[in-house]
Amino acid sequence: MRAFSYHAPSTLSDAFAFLDARTRPLAGGTDLLTLMKADLVAPERLVNVKALLPRGIAAGTDGLTIGALTTLEEIEKDAAVAKRYAALAKAAAVAASPQLRNMATIGGNLLQRPRCWYFRNPRLDCWLKGGEHCPARDGENRLHAVFGPGPCHAVHPSDLAPALAAFDAQVLLRSPRGERALPLEIFFTLPSAGRRTENVLAPDELIVSLRLPPTPEGTKSVYLKAMDRKQWAFALVAVAAVLQLEGRRVVHAHIVLGGVATIPWRAASAERALVGGDLSAATLERAAAAALEEALPLAHNAYKLPLARALVRRALESLAP
Amino acid sequence: METVRLRVNRAERSITLEPRRTLLDALRTDLGLTGAKKACDMGNCGACTVHLEGKAVYACLVLAIDCAGREVTTIEGLENDALQRAFVEADAFQCGFCTPGQIMSLKALFNETPSPNEAQIMRALSGNLCRCGAYRNIVRAARIAARSPSAA
Amino acid sequence: MKRDAELGAVGKPHPRLEGPDKVSGRARYACDLRLPRQLYARVLRCPLPHARLSRIDTSRAEGLRAVHAVLSSANAPEVPWYDTSRLFDRELRFVGEEVAAVAAESEEIAEDALRLIAVDYEPLPVEEKAGKPDVRQRGDIAAGFREAQVVIEETYTTQTALHNCLEPHGCTAVWEGDALTLYESTQGIFAVREEIAAKLGLSEERVRVVTEHMGGGFGSKQIAWKHSVIAALLARQSGRAVQLVLERDAENLAVGNRNATRQHLRLGAKRDGTLTAIEVSARVEQGAYLAGGEASDVTGTYLTLYRCPNVRAEQIQVSTHRGPAAAFRAPGYAEANFALESAMDELARKLGMDPIELRLRNYAEVDQDQRKPYTSVDSLRKCYQQIRGHFQKSAKKYGIGFAAHDWAAGAGHPPAEARVEMANGGARLVIGAQDIGTGTRTALAQIAAEELKLPLEKIIVSIGDTRDAPYGPTSAGSSTLASLAPAVRAAAQAAKAGREGLGKRAPNPKHKSVRTCGAQCAEVEVDSETGEVTVLRIVAAHDCGRIVNPLLVDSQISGGVTQALGFALTEERIVDAASGVVLNANLEEYKLPTAGDVPQITHASLSLPDDEANAAGIKGVGEPPLIPTAAAIANAVFDATGIRVRELPISREKLIR
User: pTM here?
Assistant: First the structure.
């Protein structure tokens, strides 16, 4: 890593005073340090925010609040999360490895950059890094996106993000200008020419916490993940599904896919195929097929379509009473 | 350069280092504790696993300066541990390079759960690679240690 | 040797002697050396697949206060390297090739210094070049196919695999006057000593190589690599000890890989399963240079594994602008076995024949290449029998597959020497070889203890240092124990008799051939919707002659099978065609098997002392367990799904329906 100066201010406003284009906040550091070691980012200053932001999970009648510094391990082990937000607990449990779950925070997990091997290689140009075009589009793209118009074809690596999105989570952000709360679906926005990142966080903004609304009675959820080996890998395809059932009738469905797009990808057509109906085999097949309707596979990742369809169907099957 | 006071294996250690020095490099180079290994330096293999405040972490992804005042435990901090004896008995290594990391991952588990079951053992090992493929015996060693009377 | 039941130390599952050091962190690897005022080195590498270096300016790097030596083509001595190149060539032929090196007071500063080196590259065209076919044949291949009533003709491909030993290549180099010591991570301390002495123009006596422990080689550390000379030169230039350890991406670019192959194969057989003709044309990707070490012989097993009068096997080396290939656990044989044993499975199915029956029908009792009968002629049959009992499906939806194998080496050979010194009621065993993680240290101590009738605790082993040690072979080809054990026996016998305790390995039998062989079966479950393969069970039966230490042999079986899982299912080097860059030169996207990927592994153990082979009756077992696994899994996948995958690795996209 290149040299930098390290600061551990004791108040958040002091920390904000540091945040600028040449400074990065340090929380768990599990993505930041790998980006720095690969020379993809070279901050001149690091600001340790571990003592300055909330950590911990508060559960109440108005839902769940998760402090940005809460580790994945804490989320995995939390009783309230396991009880009412099972998909989130499962996502935390299958993310990464025990050591990483001990270090990584939920804030950092949402903000982590893609794993795309063109993006992560400092010697290769790519659109997301400010270049002209995406080398994955006509290159080695078996791991890349099957949804989205581009130009970036990397996939979002987070396991927690699809689960949080499926629970309609909101992210609370703070900057020197004040606080704002955004639904995760807005927080994650496809990169554009003017903003080559996967989310709308401002350079001097920090994630403070996540808010999940309460899950009504009859809510069930699941998170399924397909990997190239049995554990410790980013998703080839993942599915977070949250259903609210009254008997066998689907009152509410929220399905978000991971590993298939540059941001967590909502399977809205699949949801529409489900709501108001029952969970019959035919309905599930229809919903699973609908999830892949707008897919645009690349040369080497068409396998993700039947894989995703199977995972969506199985996720829904597992939630059927 | 900054001076950082760490607690490593229950001893106070004071090091002068650059902020960019990882805990792994500080252990191996500034403190002469070469048990934790640098195999990938990117958090992809587990050979650098140590305990930070009792939790298993990849030392290559932690800045030493960020450990000021926090308890660090390395393989050198274990002494005739039941796990170490079980590893020797079960032939739970070949080249031995991943071994300190494997033991530290299991030790973190055993500290929390003195008699872990198979699933817990497998889970604790899921962040440590072994290229020699000694996994079968590593799991066997963990089972032996889990059964031993002083399993901790 | 006595009947094995009467043996005291040999045949016992003794824990490794160095176990306590390995589990405590005390075991020192080359990268763990901390010599006084030691410097740390880093290597600058070419970013292009083929380029001419037109300008290099290291002055800014040299200007850093904490940098004490810089080397490049501008100032390094001309040291020839590979067949046609040199230490720092000005024509660079793969992404990752060495361009310059610095030694500094810390690794971080060495990396800073690399960033200050300015290099201009002129890109050159990137082309593949196929060499002339190397043909081996016997009989009349055309007649053989005319005779055939059934023919299988298919093409099989195997991928480039990367060793990814957990301990990177590297060394710590220190001079004392004009004498050089290298604390090296190597499989061959004497091989490195010889090569480095030659490269540096030193006599071998002035070079000492030490490998107390090393963190895996698998063939990638059989030869001397550039880092040893670079470290030595930096040490000489700076006047300080220099440690040069490669980073993980450099490991995956520049220090060896398993050659990718494309094997076009034809098998001809009579309807009763008798093979009448075997033909293969194998294209083998070599990378940019011939690195040396064990050449990858893809054709070998085609000539020997099955009895067949008419065989034609040709191998074509293809040079590419990629990192040089190097021996990787059973080089050539792992790749060929996948093709041949898949084809034999296809043949068995076409004939409606039991796969083990087909192998027995074509059993070779004679080495058809060397034209000598085998010692232990029935051992492969015994391996088949061991598997037979396990070769039945446990449930309908699972698949089961079988594969046999042989192996070129494993017999061991001279030269190999040992020295035994009696002292203080015990003995000191001095071995000029190295324990690369296989347990050599312990197994040889058991041999000595047996011969001397001493308890194992009374044997002190000195191993891994060329100083004051008799010549020891490189640990490759699964031949260390078979080479050294007889020498140790001889040395111990001499010492016991009051003579000088020197022992030398005698030659192998002249009129017989030693075969290392075995068989495996695999049971798998395939999820056809998601393409996920779960290997439930592997049963392995291998003939490694006399088993000296069952604990160590079990570990080799388990380890080889586990490594083979990666070759079969998850590992592949991915290169971006446009840029020539290796996209997964790391342990994140180059997927090694994890603990959760390992199936139940049953070692259907056979101790078959082969006393005709050598004085200890031992054969190798390091490589054999890796050889038949991929084919067994592929055959099991076919059994489960009806999908024949002829391309490794067997990834999901090849199975999703």
Answer: 0.98
